[in-house]
Amino acid sequence: MSLSESFRSLHASGTFTMPNPWDKGSAVMLESLGFLALATTSAGRAMAIGKADQELTRDELVAHVADLTSVLGIPLSVDSERLYPDNPGGIAATVQLLAEAGAAGCSIEDYNPASGQIEPVETAANAVAAAAEACAKVGLVLTARAENYLYGVPDLENTISRLIAYRDAGAEVLYAPGLTDSTDIAKVVSQVGAPLNVLTLPGTPPIPELAEIGVRRLSTGSMLSNAAYGMLRTGAKELIETGTSNYATR
After folding, report:
1. 109 in helix, strand or coil?
2. Cβ 75 vs Cβ 105: under 8 Å
3. pLDDT tens profile 18-34
4. How far apart are CA 240 and CA 250, in angstroms?
5. Which residue of 117, 132, 226, 229 shows the fewest CB atoms closer than 10 Å?
6. If we measure between CA atoms, which residue out of 81, 86, 89 comes closest to residue 54?
7. In whole angstroms, what is the distance from residue 156 CA to residue 217 CA?
8. Residue 20 in contact with residue 221, Cβ under 8 Å?
């Protein structure tokens, strides 16, 4: 079974957690702990190379994916933002490059940083359809994301209708990052009719509760990288402000 097929099968039943490494060291550590799949984080990777979120180029992303898959033996899904529709070859070329780099899956978002807005649902669904067609050719698992809750549009009904449109356009997995209320999550699960990924944020229900609701997949986004860099900042501030190293005992 290929890594893409293995990744797809994980969504068939039960619930699994898919944390997000940002470099080879964090990826190897997470695999060694027993996780069955991992995913990249665009924000975490950008931070690791001194950039802001949404500033990674397609070449940088593809190189990062190849870097991680060179040391992993489990499936890797890619936080691929909008799949770089404005780059040469557009969405289809990006999917092909990610497949060649060893990815098992990828995602596509409906927020456009150029306009600072969520795309109209028809425009976003057309992009999902293009991504689904490209993913089908190379076997990648496509996750479609409705970004409402991350960008100040906490509209559950609109989010659900978007996810259903993306499912109908060919997405295999659906994701609305920012949902934290168990009742809302349960409603999404019951209505979208496809495996749902939930982002584990402070305030998100515990994983056993999410599993009971019917969530298929959990991911951490940039939370682990933020925590790691937060500890780095705390330790460095202690060194410069007090000259002590008590941070090392935490």
Report:
1. strand
2. yes
3. 999 999 999 999 999 99
4. 18
5. 117
6. 81
7. 19
8. yes
Q: Give residue 250's pLDDT.
A: 78
Contacts of 9 (CB under 8 A, 6+ apart): 1
**And the tokens for 106?**
């990828």
Q: Tell me, what amino acid is at 48?
A: A
pLDDT digits (tens, 9 = 90+) for 216-230: 999 999 999 999 999
User: What does the pLDDT look like over 155-173, one tens digit per residue?
Assistant: 999 999 999 999 999 999 9
Token digits of residue 208: 């056993």
CA distance 182 to 204: 8
**Is the CB of residue 16 less than 8 Å from the CB of residue 218?**
yes
Q: Which residues contact 214 (CB under 8 A, 6 or more apart)?
A: 186, 189, 190, 196
Alpha-carbon span 82 to 202, nearest angstrom: 26
Instruction: Kindly state the tokens that stand for 55.
Output: 């500033």
CATH 2.40.480.10 given to domain 3-222: no
CA distance 233 to 239: 10
